[in-house]
Design a protein that fits this description.
Elements lengths: L1 E7 L3 H12 L4 E5 L24 H14 L3 E4 L2 E6 L5 E5 L4 E9 L3 E3 L15 E2 L2 H4 L7 E5 L3 H13 L2 E5 L9 H8 L4 E4 L2 E7 L6 E6 L2 E5 L3 E4 L3 E3 L29 E3 L11 H20 L1
Parallel strand pairs: 1-2, 1-6, 2-3, 6-17, 8-15, 9-10, 9-15, 10-11
Antiparallel strand pairs: 4-5, 5-6, 7-16, 12-13, 13-14
Bound molecules: NADP nicotinamide-adenine-dinucleotide phosphate.
The site of NADP nicotinamide-adenine-dinucleotide phosphate has 22 residues, from helix 4.
Length: about 300
């Protein structure tokens, strides 16, 4: 089947695009490789999405998916491995399962993936002490001591969530003030089992096959902290490599498209956190999704 619009990525940007495109009467397929809802499914609590005083990230993700499907969007859980644009303008997307899909327009809404610290054995210890998602993995560390590294909203929220189940939470940040919201910092300051380790960087991961502790450099001095888990929450990086031939990428790898979400390839649009922008929020991802979908509809009408 030739879809009007293929959407790669089932986060807030992709699912909002699907809802808008369906409401404009277009056939739509959304392809997501992990979990519909995207990064937001890792947030225990979202309190800054309009219309929701407080909602868990998984619930918000579920609702975005339900809304898109209710409008008639089709969805596939699969990993896209290649994208090609034919001479006739048809976009062909091949997936890891062997499935191949075709669309007249394509919206890339692949978000961003967690950034790593880049220290020895970090990759080897993923799943054995090194984690990127407190919502997903926090329960494994109940009653244990853990560390969170980062100073943005993700790190602050992770630390709050972990402090509810873990014995002790060390919040390690490379500066003496946080980039994340003051309200979250104040909530953490009230938790007796949270220790701020500021002006500090994680330099070494201790233990064999499983993490047993970390070495931290703080104000020029070394310190060992025994922990069973290290939650790395130092932001995200785009994963746009697959689309480098279709859209210009900036030095950091973000799609260099403007607010109109168009790329250099006719009929290919980009939305959400994978696009170069100054504010990466749920609201701006959803906004991009609607802009990209309407731009794709205009392209199909032309
Ligand atoms: P972020 O805001 O970019 O924060 C990343 C943090 O990691 C910064 O404090 C940064 O330090 C630190 N960092 C970066 N590279 C590092 C390195 N190599 N070593 C040590 N520390 C490093 O990322 P985020 O917390 O993932 O949030 C991403 C976006 O999603 C933000 O706009 C955030 O507000 C939003 N968000 C929203 C919610 C919600 O509830 N709505 C929840 C989570 C996230 P510096 O400050 O020194 O640069």
């Amino acid at each position: 089947m030739l879809y009007d619009i293929l959407i790669i990525g089932g986060g807030p940007a992709g699912l909002t695009a699907a809802t808008y495109a369906r409401r404009a009467g277009r056939s739509v397929l959304v392809i997501e490789k992990n979990a519909f809802g995207g990064q937001i499914t890792w947030s225990p609590k979202v309190e800054n999405f309009p219309g929701f005083v407080s909602v868990s990230g998984t619930e918000l993700g579920d609702r975005l998916l339900e809304q898109a499907m209710e409008q008639g969007a089709e969805v596939e859980l699969d990993e896209v491995v290649s994208v090609a644009v034919g001479a006739d303008g048809v976009k062909t997307v091949a997936c890891d399962s062997g499935a191949v899909f075709e669309g007249r327009a394509l919206i890339v809404a692949v978000g961003a993936k967690p950034r790593m610290l880049g220290i020895d054995r970090e990759e080897a210890l993923v799943g054995n002490g090194v984690c990127f998602c407190a919502v997903c993995d926090g329960a494994f560390y109940a009653g244990k001591d853990v560390a969170v590294n980062g100073g943005g909203n993700s790190a602050l929220q992770d630390a709050l969530l972990l402090s509810e189940k873990c014995r002790k939470v060390y919040l390690i940040h490379r500066r003496d003030s946080f980039r994340g919201e003051q309200k979250l910092v104040e909530a953490l300051q009230k938790r007796p089992n949270v220790e701020f380790v500021l002006n500090a960087s994680v330099t070494e991961l201790l233990g064999g096959d499983e993490l047993t502790g970390i070495k931290v450099e703080q104000n020029g001095a070394g310190r060992e902290i025994p922990v069973a888990g290290l939650f790395v929450a130092i932001g995200h990086a785009p994963d746009n490599g697959l689309f480098a031939g279709l859209m210009a990428l900036d030095r950091a790898g973000y799609a260099d498209a403007g607010e109109d979400c168009t790329t250099k390839t006719p009929g290919v649009f980009v939305a959400g956190d994978c696009r170069a922008k100054s504010v990466r929020q749920l609201t701006t991802a959803a906004a991009d999704g609607s802009v990209a979908a309407l731009a794709a509809c205009r392209y199909l009408d032309a």
